[in-house]
Amino acid sequence: QSALTQPASVSGSPGQSITISCTGTSSDVGSYNSVSWYQHHPGKAPKLIIYDVSNRPSGVSNRFSGSKSGNTASLTISGLRAEDEADYYCSSYTSSSTYVFGTGTKVTVL
Amino acid sequence: EVQLLESGGSLVQPGGSLRLSCEASGFTFSRYAMTWVRQAPGKGLEWVSGITDSGGSTYFADSVKGRFTISRDNSKNTLYLQMNSLRAEDTAVYYCAKGNGGWFDPWGQGTLVTVSS
Fold first, then answer.
1. Which residue among B61, B62, B105 sits closest to A48, beta carbon to beta carbon?
2. N or C: which end of chain A has fewer CB within 10 A?
């Protein structure tokens, strides 16, 4: 199972919005709504920020939103803040009854 | 508060074995599927294995299939990952996470496994 494809890096200024794409195939992203997103500050535990494509867990800022079209899922961070600087990973259930993560995106707040 | 505490990571020689543990607290462990995810140095996250709430079904990434075994002891609120025939490419921080039904939340802090001679 190949990793889902994410841009290696995305940057934005404070207050701006950025979008991270996550491209898979018809065997994963395209066929299931079990797409989730994780924020990972190095040295800490990854944190769930979006589940089932577009749902936010309790306590996660509404500045984070998710969507999906075809084989590509997207995470949008609006009103970018310094604390949003981290690595972000998407994940999808697959037709093999396994999961696959994205390649990861480093978000830099300029 | 849900807490997951991994342990068992260490330096091991290629071909060796290691068992990781993940002690859970703050939720009814026996009601939830559980998952292991790893991150090799400088690399991204990789899903490794998952197990259903009862332990009746297990799932593995192709990269570890036949070498790793996942199990749980619901009486001890503990998840395990038995790793055999370890390779250099298994070197990673191993995280356990609650869930295997679409998303993983929360995650533990991880335990480092280093495979090297």
1. B105
2. C
HSE, CB side, 13 Å, CA atoms: give it for residue B25: 5
Chain B hits for A36, CB-CB cut-off 8 Å, are 102-104
The torsion region of residue A13 among left (phi > 0), alpha (psi -120 to 50) and beta comes to beta
Q: Is B23 on the interface with A (CB under 8 A)?
A: no
| Angstrom distance (rounded) from CA A96 to CA A19 | 28
Chain A residues bordering chain B (beta-carbon distance below 8 Å) = 1, 3, 34, 36, 38, 40, 44-48, 51-52, 57, 87, 89, 91, 93, 97-104
What letter does residue B65 receive in the DSSP assignment? T
Distance from C-alpha of A27 to C-alpha of A93, rounded to nearest angstrom: 9
Q: How confident is the model at residue A109 (pLDDT cuts 50, 70, 90)?
A: very high
pLDDT in tens, A46-63: 999 999 999 999 999 999
